[in-house]
Design brief:
Blueprint: H1 2-9, H2 12-15, H3 18-42, H4 47-59, H5 61-105
Helix pairs in contact: 1-5, 3-4, 3-5, 4-5
């Protein structure tokens, strides 16, 4: 949600910068890696396996997260977790749109 909010309200000179995009990608991958490590430890995975998934998720987040979800929760649990994520994403997008509409109403500059 923070990413959507910042992308919507930061000036385009900042958000169109390639270093900004790279920084967000790295920050997102690190956050996902930390989440995978914490979740795997909560599910009592062996530490070596936790480290493998954490390191893989830093480099290959888009590939590792679905594999991790299936391995840790099964197909049904992975589908449920994905639906929850989509629901939260939709909620975040609605929030950004409403804030954008309110900002426009009160004359605050918004970059989208």
């Amino acid at each position: 949600m923070l990413i959507l909010f910042l992308l919507a309200f930061l000036p385009t000179e900042v958000t169109d910068n390639r270093w900004f995009a790279l920084s967000w990608k790295v920050a997102f991958n690190l956050f996902v890696a930390l989440w995978i490590a914490a979740d795997a430890r909560a599910h009592n995975w062996e530490e070596e396996r936790v480290k493998w998934y954490m390191h893989l998720s830093i480099a290959l987040t888009e590939f590792t997260v679905p594999v991790y979800l299936v391995k840790s929760r099964g197909w049904k649990g992975a589908a449920e977790a994905s639906l929850w994520f989509l629901g939260y994403l939709l909620l975040a997008m609605v929030f950004v749109v409403i804030v954008g509409m309110l900002a426009k109403r009160f004359g605050i500059y918004v970059s989208f």
